[in-house]
Design a protein that fits this description.
Blueprint lengths: L10 E2 L9 H9 L19 H18 L5 E6 L2 H13 L5 E6 L2 H10 L4 E7 L23 E3 L2 E2 L4 E2 L11 E4 L16 E5 L10 E6 L16 H6 L9 H17 L1 H22 L3 E2 L11 E6 L5 H10 L2 E2 L10 E4 L6 H18 L1
Parallel strand pairs: 1-13, 3-4, 3-5, 5-8, 8-9
Antiparallel strand pairs: 2-10, 6-7, 9-10, 11-12, 12-14
Bound molecules: pyridoxal-5'-phosphate.
Length: 366
């Protein structure tokens, strides 16, 4: 492998914006100045042009196929990030309701709750806080509110590396999921959800694009004052082109969907992702030097935080890793330590290289 200084690519463990599949980047580079004989690149095409509309429609069709999205769900290509959705969900679903239920499992759900509280009463139905957010509270202990507008949860907490091993069942209000760091990592049953949303920059494409998948029978629950571009029903009617959408990010996401399909779809992705994660957790668990704080049945496939010994060699670990072509392993600023994000675009060889580096570092310094 060429070093980055010589034009090669590093294994990029960033939590987001994260690595994209190399074949996608190479195709985009090839098409950068002239997309399919248009004499212009995708960034330079009108979103109303036949060429861009064909890109947009193909991307939506491919995403629907990958996730088997039922016909009574809208698939929206929006802006504003997952953080925008923290507010747009209560604004779109909270009309006529006094409150909604939230499951608090880490820093992203905490932010979702704080934002939603501006628009309705956000009740914490369950919290993993007493374990330092190292587990998912069992559903039998949740304290849900009858008549809530919806129940919101975060299937994968990107910072803490805590992932739900189950989809909450028997909930009689719409289930809303922030799937920013897990969408497309494995198959899901969309019909179990009212709303699924995800910022693209983890597992889907470039930042600037937010995917929302919304059951259309929830339209009509919008609160009265809501900006049009963030109104699910209006965006559905407009094909997500009420105003100029993030065209280039939409196009790259479309290339990513085709890449996932070429690998065999979400069953194949799940198999690869499960194997990559298992290897890395095994390496951590088998060592006396590295550790991961998350309860084993709640460990994320996508974001794996770990600490090295007493933390005194963290800087050496990180600088050695960077020199070995293993980039952005520093943990989130709020928790420290290390974090390896191993989304779909991280090849298994990257995980193998990380494990080899960790073992060598332990052998030579611990
Ligand atoms: C990254 C992330 C967010 C924030 O996404 P933005 O697009 O930056 O707003 C929210 N929730 C989860 C689970 C995330 O991983």
């Amino acid at each position: 492998m060429n070093s980055p200084a010589d034009g090669g690519r590093a294994f990029n463990f960033s939590a987001g914006p994260a690595a994209l599949p190399e074949p996608v980047l190479l195709q985009a580079a090839e098409e950068m100045t002239n997309w399919h004989g248009q004499g212009a690149g995708v960034m330079e095409l009108s979103h109303r042009s036949k060429a861009f509309v064909s890109i947009a429609e193909q991307a939506e069709a491919d995403l629907r196929e990958l996730l088997s999205v039922p016909d009574d769900y809208a698939v929206l290509f929006l802006q504003g990030g997952a953080t925008g959705q923290f507010g747009f969900v209560p604004l779109n679903l909270g009309g006529g309701f006094t409150g909604a239920d939230y499951v608090l499992t880490g820093q992203w759900s905490k932010k979702a709750i704080a934002e939603a509280s501006k628009y309705l009463s956000a009740n914490v139905a369950a919290t993993g806080e007493e374990s330092g957010f190292s587990h998912v509270p069992e559903q039998s202990q949740w304290n849900t509110t009858p008549g809530a507008a919806y129940l919101h949860y975060t299937p994968n907490e990107t910072i803490g590396g805590v992932e739900f091993g189950f989809v909450p069942g028997g909930i009689d209000v719409p289930l809303v999921a922030d799937m920013s760091s897990t969408l497309l990592s494995r198959p899901i049953d969309v019909s179990q959800f009212g709303v699924i949303y995800a910022g693209a920059q983890k597992n889907i494409g470039p930042s600037g694009l937010t995917i929302a998948i919304v059951k259309r029978d929830l339209f009509g629950r919008a609160q009265s004052a809501l900006p049009d571009p963030f109104n699910y029903q209006m965006q559905d009617k407009a094909g997500s082109m009420l105003n100029t959408p993030p065209t280039y990010a939409w196009y790259i996401a479309g290339l990513v969907f085709q890449w996932v399909k070429s690998l065999g779809g979400l069953n194949a992705m799940a198999e690869i992702n499960e194997r990559k994660a298992r290897k890395l957790y095994e390496a951590i668990d088998q060592s006396d030097y590295y550790s991961n704080p998350v309860q084993p049945d709640c460990r994320s496939w996508m974001n794996i935080p770990f600490i090295c010994g007493d933390g005194s060699r963290d800087d050496d670990f990180l600088s050695g890793a960077t020199a070995a072509g293993l980039h952005t392993l520093k943990g989130h600023r709020s928790v420290g330590g290390m974090r390896a994000s191993i989304y779909n675009a991280m090849p298994e060889a990257g995980v193998d290289a990380l494990i080899a580096y960790m073992q060598e570092f332990e052998r030579t310094t611990a």
